[in-house]
Amino acid sequence: MKAPHPDGPVPLFGTWRAIYTAVVLSALAVMALVFLFSRWPF
Amino acid sequence: VAVLSPVASVLAPADWAVLVTYVVGIVAFGVWVGRRTRNVSDFYLAGREMRWWAAGLSVMATQISAVTFVGTTGQAYTKGMSFLAFYFGLPFAMVVLSLTLVPFFYRAGVYTAYQYLERRFDARTRTLTSLLFLLSRGLSVGITLYAPSLVLSVIFGWNETATIAVMAGATIVYVAYGGNRSVIWTDVAQMALVWFGIFTCVGVAVAQLPAGVGLRDALALAQATGRLEVMDTSLDPSRRYTVWSGLIGGMFLAMGYFGCDQSQVQRYLSGRSLTESRLSLLFTAFLKVPMQFLILLTGVLVFVFFHFHETPLLWNRAELEHLEAQAPPAELASVREEAAAAHRERRLAAEAFARARHGGGDVASHRESYLAAQRRVDGAEDATRRLASSVAHRKVEDVNYIFPSYIVDRLRGGLAGLIIAVIFAAAMSALAGELNSLATATMVDFYSRFVQTRGAPGGDLLASRVFTAFWGLFAALVAMKAGQLGSAIEVVNLFGSFFYGSILGVFGLAVLTPRATARGAFYGLFAGMATVFLVWWTTSVAFLWYNVVGAVTVFVVGLVITAVAPGVRPVGDTRS
Questions:
Q1: Cβ distance B389 to B327 under 8 Å?
Q2: ipTM
Q3: Could you tell me which chain B residue has the CA closest to the CA of A27?
Q4: Chain B residues near residue A10 by CB distance under 8 angstroms
Q5: Confidence (pLDDT) at B430
Q6: Which chain B residues touch A if contact means CB-CB below 8 Å?
């Protein structure tokens, strides 16, 4: 059985690794969207 | 188009009502939420009971200032959205901090980041880093107040001293009374107001485009001038905002600011658990870039808006009056005539471009005509500023006056008052966090450490409140004198970038290298600052890279000194 996290339950996504991954992926996604926005054929 | 159209200098009664309601309301709210502050733990860390979203909004509110609104919107108007790259590294910095510094600070139970350095290294490293924080933050907090006060005074004809006094006085009252609890909860309210203001600005700018010109047309016009360009992939280190300087330099800057600057550390250490503290930073990581994108987009839309509406010869009303009074009449008439003709040509070209996009002609040729007209406007505006600069015997820049001019001249029905309240909120939220952290660092790292080491709890709370008032008055004094400082303001801003990266290097040594000694950290810090100074003095490297240079130098020199002349090995290491 997985030991409880010493600083309390990990909210969202189950693990801290998943949370950090989500933050990094969202940052990359925002950069990609900004790039798309700047090049979008308005 | 009548080009010379000075902006209105008075707010309507509805605007005043909104602004006064905001100031009175935020002070009353700050005092009310601070009524439970009874000891220094409450005053410094809000009793460590904050939820992640409240601490996260407070982190964001402390970072943004009035310059965020009046400066970056003007920057987007004149140069486009490239400044967004400055924030690209921030989310990654938040992840690194959540993994490294935040757990060390939180578990050590410290009030200030610098306290941790004494436990890990020695008292002199703690004292030096805290002193650097007090010096730079103490001076820059005055600029935080001065910048919006100057702009609002010029636009509205308000008394500059009175504007500074209202902002500083209102903030001192609730921060000195309620400490960090008041800071965080008023920050939450102020951030809600700021977000509301951002969406209002974007909505109004779009709604005021003329018939036949839609949002897509507006963005196409901005895009044609390069104002939507964000992704500069140039490897030239002297270019200020590139993807690389933003990602790497911006990441180091964000790690230095959020990880080592007490005004931020104190916000997230108020979390009710380590999890809440970490989440507050990650929450900021999610929201910061989109928020800055919307603020810059507002500036771009205001740029397009003034294709179709009257544009003043100069945005700074005082400079315009000076120009009209002092410039040779023939030269003034010449620049005025050229500006009027250039703006008229641009308006017609922009309308033709929009019509062509809707099937009314050759889009490519109309785009070229529009760009030629835009170049003519750029040339006319440059000529105006050259004349204004020669009359004033100094460089005239009025980029910070564009957005406030737009607000007061174009927003009605209390909206101008609302956006001025947003500018006040941005200034006061930054000021509040900074005053609270300055008071805490003064109290914890100096007064309690060296002067009154065994004070009574009640006395410590009173002293903390006195220090808050002291720093507030000091900030107001610096703001009132800032107009006479001239280039000293740039020195103050530059001063911070000299040591942010270096202090980050010290904290890096503290948590990443078990063997690093106090001697290595202390002298490494000096080596880092000296290297950054040399880079600034001898090269044209953009300032974002200073943070990388400083951090890496401290880290390397610190390790070398540790290896060559270790001195006393660290004892009482609280790393966990």
A1: no
A2: 0.88
A3: B91
A4: 275
A5: 92
A6: 81, 84, 88, 91-92, 94-95, 98-99, 216-217, 219-220, 223, 228-231, 273-275, 278-279, 282, 285-286, 289-290, 293
Rounded Cα gap, residues B92 and B246, in angstroms: 11
The alpha-carbon gap from A15 to the nearest alpha carbon of chain B, in Å, equals 12
Q: Which two tokens stand for residue B94?
A: 């938040």
Count CB-CB contacts under 10 A for residue B62: 27
* C-alpha–C-alpha distance, residues B515 and B502, integer Å: 19
From B151, B75, B168, select the one nearest B483 (Cα to Cα).
Answer: B151
- Asked if A1 reaches chain B (Cβ–Cβ under 8 Å), the answer is no
List strand residue ranges (DSSP E) for B374-513, in order. Answer: none
| Separation in Å, CA of B89 to nearest CA in chain A | 9
Q: Looking at chain A, how many residues does it have?
A: 42
Residues from chain B that touch A5, judged by Cβ atoms under 8 A, are 275
The pair of three-digit structure tokens given for residue B86, joined into one six-digit string: 């400055």
Q: Do A24 and B228 touch (CB under 8 A)?
A: no
**Measured distance CA(B339)–CA(B265) in Å, rounded:** 49
CB contact under 8 A, B229 and A38: yes
- Which of B286, B295, B357, B370 to mutate to probe the A interface, most A CBs <10 Å? B286
Supply B321's token pair.
Answer: 């009056």
Q: pLDDT band at A11, cuts 50/70/90? A: confident
DSSP secondary structure letter of residue B50: B
Distance of CA B298 to the CA centre of its chain: 17
CA B319/CA B394 separation, integer angstroms:
11
Query: For residues B371 and B366, what is the distance between their CA atoms, to the nearest angstrom?
Result: 9
Q: Looking up tokens 């010096």, which residue turns up?
A: B135
Quick count: other Cβ atoms within 10 Å of Cβ A33? Answer: 14
DSSP secondary structure, B296-319, as one string: HHHHHHHHHHTTSS---S-S-HHH
- Closest-CA residue to B309 (of B208, B216, B198, B199): B208
- Give the global pTM: 0.87
Listed as ranges, residues in chain B with pLDDT below 70 are 1-9, 453-458, 483-496, 566-576
Report CA-CA distances (Å) from B174 to B30, B215, B240, B302, B356.
Answer: 5, 42, 38, 35, 56
- Alpha-carbon gap, residue B353 to B217, rounded angstroms: 8
Chain mean position to CA B117: 27
> Residue type at B204?
V
User: B246: nearest CA in chain A?
Assistant: A31
pLDDT tens-place string over residues B462-486: 999 999 999 999 999 988 887 666 5
* pLDDT at B455 (0 to 100): 62
Task: Name the residue facing B273 among A7, A16, A42 (closest C-beta).
Answer: A7
Q: Is the separation of the CB atoms in B190 and B23 below 8 Å? A: no
- Specify whether the CB–CB gap between B172 and B428 falls below 8 A: no
User: Residue B55 is encoded by which pair of tokens?
Assistant: 């601490």
Residues B411 and B432 sit within 8 Å (Cβ to Cβ): no
CB pairs under 8 A between A and B: 61
- Cβ–Cβ gap B217/A30 under 8 Å: no
Locate B297 and state its tokens.
């987009």
Tell whether A34 is within 8 A of chain B (Cβ).
yes
The alpha carbon torsion through B436, B442, B445, B448 (nearest 10 deg) reads -110
